[in-house]
Amino acid sequence: MVLWVFGYGSLIWKAGFHYDERRVGFIKGYRRFFHQGSTDHRGTPANPGRTVTLEPHDGHTCWGVAYRVSGQEAEDIALSDEDSTEPAISGVLVYIASTDKKSNKNYLGPAPLEMMAHQIVGAVGPSGPNIEYLFQLEAALLEIGCNDSHVTDLANAVRKELTCKDGDATSNGDAE
User: What is the pTM of this model?
Assistant: First the structure.
């Protein structure tokens, strides 16, 4: 069996599983937002980070990367997210977190940009600082030719927060 998995967040730069092919692509009718809480990778239960999820949005296109995986081991790794339930937009498996807070306890939802930036600056989890996730996503999107205004605006708000907090920030968000 061959399976295509679409990555719109960290999978763009770090698949974490063996794949046979990688292609830049997009899905229509969805938009990437930093509305998903991360209590296991980029934050903690006491101080959740924010990661991206997809939400339906008419007229929008979400760019990312599709991976072709084959073999049982690769499929098991690609499908290891126990919350993944919905397959297939044009034959590609896409994980879309539920916006229902009863079924998705980590869904944070929308918030003012400055509030999200402050939360991202302060969150650190086992996979590293939340700002690292944001800045890696921004760089990965630019590398594939995508300018996502939500990601860019949030990255700029985080840079501003870091500048206010530390006095100065580089384009990567690292304080000098």
Answer: 0.82
